[in-house]
């Protein structure tokens, strides 16, 4: 049974405790490390369900930072990364980001958060004015919406709308060639799944107007059992299926759908299939699943890209992920911008970064560009191909056309009221 | 000595003046605490320390309000976080969509919370123990799902984007870090003081009686349902205040604020700090946030460390820290002074 204590006692001891606690922990906070090195803070997700992706972000960053440091650092200053776990919680991401700047003295920031965490860190960047590159959030609004725009924040991740345009036009070409008119969709029930699916079908119908969506399934995020979804789709008898399930959800879905021999009965378009985290985990990878590229060392088919993928594999004994190339690109861009500005100062780097084009293994034509007007990465390798059950998994990727992407993106921005 | 015996022993003549004295002492302590906290920025330029106190205010209000239910009334709510999330979202949405002055949004949020809490409470407080816990949890998940699926209004799982506007009012500019800090401290102290008054009032003692023996309270003519509903709504208001402080701190609101893990954290805080003293949850808050902040600096396996700590409290001390300290102190005084 709970009892009420004498109030005076508890209060006094509490105050003493609180005082002691505050003193103990204030001391190191006051002292700030001052050194020639430049600290870059990086909140990311190192625990929980997407920890693998956060770890792969960290790996890629460290791989690139070593190169930059070996070449003399950021405008002569050696980079020291301070990487901390946000647990995938936005309030923790905000706290960690503030702590990295205010306590650890980080002068630059890499925000390797996904989804809501990226928006939380974006607010911190707005508040503190610290230079920040978002590396993992694919939500188009983060850079497309002018309300989000701040001069000190950039993004080096792929963007949802780019993927949809390329995916839609690729799928429409196949739909026309093979006469696929009845389509079904199956995507996770949250903003990313809903938005991406809506945009994909928008562009699919635009390029192939007689396509019809006859069935929609929205399994929960991290759902363990897909039997109900699989049977629903089989009963609807579509000719093609679109899905933006990802990671463990996609692999369990494929393993379970394999039991029903689903992949022989329809063409499947799974945008997130061609990522090593999914490709290497599926038990029996069906042949002929259409997928967008995430990270694959065979696309772009350049020796630079293959070398980068192999170097990563040699160092960490696993293949890079989609998040890996996005984070590596952030460091490459930072280093180049610092060189151009001849300074490691955040404001000067931001200025130099606008419109900067650099050589990059992940570029569609060997280069990527940080677009000046909305601070987002363009020109990165983007394309679709079909799977085979063993390495290289996706032997041929058909590259998307950036000219079409730009045209349709501008139109999309107008329709959203962003431009 | 049981709770009731303790109560009876004090219900003698000096109780009136004693209560008044206690009240003044509480106010005095509150004033001193506020003065100390508010003058902190004069002595340190550490923004991290100020951030820490702001987060303590948010979680402290939230956890202490849960203790009104758990410790004082015996209502173990697993869904208290819904009001934390509701506060953050209502406040953020009102500020973003309507652009009213902050105090108006503050009051409006409290009104919305009171309304929602009254409806949910009316259904929940009839239930006992595990049933109450689970129905509150169910309502929490309902609110969380609503936030996720009503994406056009709430921003879905991306949260409220674009920042919460913080226009200055009465010379207070919450976009300024120091102003936000002092305002958070003020809200914390006022909230704690108000909850303390509730806990020490006759109503507070009614709650304790309901906790110890609801049937007896009912036979004495107390409307148990109404008392439970009242404290449910009151606790929701303070949780909502905590949510608003958090929304101001991160300049946004995210579905995680309304997820069951937030309720879990509040229960964890109460276990750490102790539920038998008023300030137990506050101590728990400071402990948990300190632990969290220091442990995550050094390892990403913070789950293991926090797990060991809670095992130590649950199996080792078998009570919260402040419970333990208070008992030890009382024991020492009893034996030492030979009372």
Automatic annotation (TrEMBL), chain A:
PROSITE patterns: TAT. Gene3D superfamilies: 3.40.50.2300. Residues 37-378 form the Leucine-binding protein domain. Residues 1-26 form the signal peptide. InterPro entries: BCAA_transport (IPR051010), Leu-bd (IPR028081), Leu_Ile_Val-bd (IPR000709), Peripla_BP_I (IPR028082), TAT_signal (IPR006311). It holds the Pfam family Peripla_BP_6. One of its GO terms (biological process) is amino acid transport. Keywords: Amino-acid transport, Signal, Transport. Belongs to the leucine-binding protein family. This is Amino acid/amide ABC transporter substrate-binding protein (HAAT family). It comes from Bradyrhizobium sacchari. The lineage of its organism: Bacteria, Pseudomonadati, Pseudomonadota, Alphaproteobacteria, Hyphomicrobiales.
TrEMBL record, chain B:
InterPro entries: ABC_transp_permease, LivM-like. Keywords: Cell membrane, Membrane, Transmembrane, Transmembrane helix. It is found in: Cell membrane. This is Amino acid/amide ABC transporter membrane protein 2 (HAAT family). PANTHER family: ABC TRANSPORTER ATP-BINDING PROTEIN, HIGH-AFFINITY BRANCHED-CHAIN AMINO ACID TRANSPORT SYSTEM PERMEASE. One of its GO terms (cellular component) is plasma membrane. The keyword Transcription does not apply. The chain crosses the membrane at residues 27-46, 102-123, 130-153, 178-199, 229-254, 266-291, 298-317. It is a multi-pass membrane protein. CDD domains: TM_PBP1_LivM_like. One of its GO terms (molecular function) is branched-chain amino acid transmembrane transporter activity.
